[in-house]
Amino acid sequence: MGNLLQIFRLIIYWFILSAPLVYLMNTGIVETTSNLITYDVGVIAYVGWLLAVYIITKPKWLLRVLRISEVMAWHRLLGPLTLLLALGHYWFSFSMHEEIKYTGLGALVAAVIALLVAIIWLTPLSKQAKTTFDSFRQAMRQLWSYQTGRWLHRLYLLAIVLGLVHVHMIPRIAESLYFMMTFDAYTLFVLASYAWYRMK
């Protein structure tokens, strides 16, 4: 029950944060309903990446509202959830522009690798069931130190930067002033928060 409550609270916060961008997307861009839904899914995935990076900084206001264990559980949940949305966005999207296509694909690949890093290096090893996968993970951890898990943060940052460039390259979206201002403000706030956290 506790895990379900954590997921429910995460989804509520996540969608509240995504709502302004989704609203501005749907009111500021003339597109078909199916395309708008595809864009919305991509935006929600992008906000999930931003949220995952922001959680890394352990903001004091958030820790006053939630326990540290719940905040870290959110971080673990955002990996697979954002990847599912990003896959859906990529699968149903179409673009004639190579630069748009490949920046989006690059962000998706970074998210996939980030999830693999999390599974191999950051998920606790089973003490009872010694599966082949457990043995593989143990061997990988011996080859590369546990600190390799730091690449998880860098991969999320790469996905965010590629996602940012991807959106700026889509003419219809880039022309929506209020959406782009809000989109860039979200991104700059999270990147600045992360930079400050790393410098402390």
Protein model, in words:
The protein is mainly α and 200 residues long. The protein has a single domain, classed as Four Helix Bundle (Hemerythrin (Met), subunit A), CATH 1.20.120. 82% of the residues lie in helices and 0% in strands. The chain has nine helices and no strands.
Question: Tags for this entry?
Answer:
200 residues, Four Helix Bundle (Hemerythrin (Met), subunit A), 9 helices, 0% strand, globular
* Measured distance between first and last alpha carbons: 37 Å
Q: Count the E strands.
A: 0
Number of domains: 1
Task: Using the coordinates above, name the CATH class.
Answer: Mainly Alpha
Q: Class by helix and strand content?
A: mainly alpha
Strand content: under 5%
Oligomer: single chain
Q: Determine the fraction of residues in helical runs and give it as a percent range.
A: over 70%
Gross morphology is globular
- CATH fold call: Four Helix Bundle (Hemerythrin (Met), subunit A)
Mean pLDDT: 84
Q: Pick out the low-confidence regions.
A: none
Main sheet, how many strands, which sense, barrel?
A: none
- The number of helices is 9
| Corresponding CATH architecture | Up-down Bundle
Order of helices and strands: HHHHHHHHH
- Radius of gyration (CA) equals 18 Å
